[in-house]
Amino acid sequence: MSVVTDMLRHGEPYFVVLPDHEAGLAVARRLDGPHTRTLRHASGRPWIVGRWSGDELTVAQAGSAGIALLGCCPIDPEALARRAGRLREVADLDAFAASLTGSFHLVATAAGRVRFQGSVSNLRIAHYAQVEGIQVGCDRADVLAALAGAALDERQIAVRLLWPAPHPLLDKPLWHGVHGVPAGRYAVLDRGGRTVHIARWWKPPEPTRSLAEGAPLVREALADAVRARTAAGGTISSDLSGGLDSTSVCFLAATGDSRVLASTWPGLDPTDDDLPWARRAAAHMPGVEHLVWRAEDSPLVYEGLLDIDDPLDEPTIGMLDRARALSHVPQLAAAGSRLHLTGIGGDHLTWCSEAYYHRLLRRRPVAAIRQLRGFRALFTWPLLPMLGALADTRSYPRWLAGTAGELRQPLPEPVRGTLGWTSPPRLFPWVTNHAAELVVETMRAAAESVEPLSGDRGMHVDIEQILVTGRIVRQWEQMSRRAGLPMASPFFDDRVISACLSVNPLERVTPWRYKPLLVEAMRGVVPDECLARTSKAQAARDAALGLRRNRADLIAMWEQSRLAEMGLVDRDRLIDLTERPDDPSLRHAVLYSTIGCEVWLRGLGTMERSSGDVATAAP
């Protein structure tokens, strides 16, 4: 049995990309196992090796050229074949990649070079490392680490204890010698397999479209994204929380070729008004079966953490809500659902960061001041911190270097993050000085060469939030698939992202209207009474109750903490805090990154015990 089969023991999909080199044969042999599939270069050597289902691959080859799309991409095979027939250089695929609907990896070969890339959202990530003397690509960092016999990088684990971890720190995988390909870029393996070249294929659009111009483009892109998931027919399910995002996806799905099950989890908070809004929407979809789960049956945040053993290639705060996020999977799968749709991403795309007003204040002061006054009243921003944030003109490298010296300071006023490059990161008291030193060194080193995701801090924040959330959803998708039901989030398709980001921020975010871009985009698709909602339910009560009920499991986890064994956290401080679930600091997400790292390390330990090969990746 291969090293990867031992590690991904539940049949999780993966793929490895190989250059047209004889050493690729040795790598492919190490991947051989049950259900392994292989695509080959024109030379007969392996090109793509891994595990995937038949409906997750569209491939066309013409002579020595080839294009493979792995994931969801409803392109006509003949159209792909025509594009492969015209392919002379792998660098010529930028516009083609940006034109496609869906969420997928693109792999291409031409003129002896191999290109591979993920998605703009980080739902699809690309990595590379040296294996058997050649550079190899893969969609999973842990697979590459196992093939390369790479050791965990203590420094990168310490970085994941930051809350939040700012760009570009999450781009580095957690093993020595394994490299990430940043979102919006592609990697090229040369003919000899010795070098990797990274190039940009996507950049954010200029946000110059008016709401009237942009809304039809958003509607078209989102409708295409949902249609890509419903076109195969059968039964699908869709979240219907009652919020605008999932409601929009559900209405679009109801117009497709699949039978739709709408799924609603009411919150425990008596002020939560999701259910009435969900029922109101369902009443306008007579062909959709509405399934409402009992709020008291919903798992809470922090539930089942000791039982998680999903093989993931990086920590994620999504672990904290895993039990709730997947609790409806068995029932939906039993009801025949082949795919579950979510509205995740709508908050990040159809709304936008108020940080745009940092630049707008200087370019369009009258309009910006009017809006800022509205935001200050809406969010109760204190005046002096707001003015301080607006006066901060530091470049992103200077900001990143400066925050490295502030990691132990109290949490800042939220407005400083809202109007800044992002929320200033923090390390909490239980993180050891040793871990803090590693983090500070890493941040200062990154600041020497970092470029912001956009020169406009508003666009930078928008893209960063897409990337961070995309990483979480990527892991949820992997966990949901293992639990028996694949998941998809159409808002995070590349074309939807580009369409939303192209709209003028003065019209995309305003204190006077709630999600105006989504409302206008869905006008005529979603009934007006459903578009009238301006509230959003919060899960603060669920989280507080979850911490109280699962306190014993958390304490047991800290008592056997892998992070403590590595010298990165203080076990006693964590136990002391967990024993005080009403501590005011716990109203913030102070434990999330630490729990995400700890649960991930526990899962990695489970893999080590089941496979001697993977043990080389232990700390």
TrEMBL record:
May I ask which residue range the UniProt record assigns to the signal sequence?
Answer: none
For the biological process aspect of GO, one term held by this record is: asparagine biosynthetic process
| Catalytic activity annotation | L-aspartate + L-glutamine + ATP + H2O = L-asparagine + L-glutamate + AMP + diphosphate + H(+)
Question: Which Pfam families has this protein been placed in?
Answer: Asn_synthase
InterPro entries the record matches: Asn_synthase, ASN_synthetase/amidase, Rossmann-like_a/b/a_fold
Q: Is the Nucleotide-binding keyword given for this protein?
A: no
Please state the pathway this protein functions in, per its UniProt record.
Amino-acid biosynthesis; L-asparagine biosynthesis; L-asparagine from L-aspartate (L-Gln route): step 1/1
Please name the GO terms that the record assigns under molecular function.
asparagine synthase (glutamine-hydrolyzing) activity
Q: Which UniProt keywords apply?
A: Amino-acid biosynthesis, Asparagine biosynthesis, Ligase
The EC number(s) attached to this protein equal 6.3.5.4
Domain Asparagine synthetase, by residue range, is 218-602
- This chain's protein is named asparagine synthase (glutamine-hydrolyzing)
Which organism was this protein described from?
Actinoplanes campanulatus
